[in-house]
Design brief:
With 107 residues, this protein is an alpha/beta fold. The protein has a single domain, classed as Transcription Regulator spoIIAA (2-Layer Sandwich), CATH 3.30.750.24. The chain contains 4 helices and 7 strands, in the order βββαββαβαβα. The strands form 2 sheets. It has a 5-stranded mixed beta sheet with strand order 1-2-4-6-7. Strands 3-5 form a two-stranded parallel ribbon. The chain is globular and about 30 Å long.
Length: 107
Amino acid sequence: MEHDGDALVARLRGEVDMTNASFIREELTSSVPNDASALVIDLSDTLYVDSAAIEVLFELSRRLGRRRQDLRLVVPAASPLRRLLTLTDVGAVAPMHESLAEALEGP
């Protein structure tokens, strides 16, 4: 994870599923400082997510929202995840952006 301005950027690679979703949720939740405006999760190199990973995204959005922080996702149009995240309505709670630069600009 790295800071970029007042946002925290996390890059997830490989697979996010029931075997690692709880760990990822705890790591991300505990890493976002109170003064951050947003958590940006870059899914550009993520190959697979299951329902546990999708639940993590919804839960992170709720937790961050209570702290008046945004959750933003980087999901390129060519990513196999784009359709799944659209069908599960993740975009309603975490805007999906084509690039990291776009996500850092804001909702």
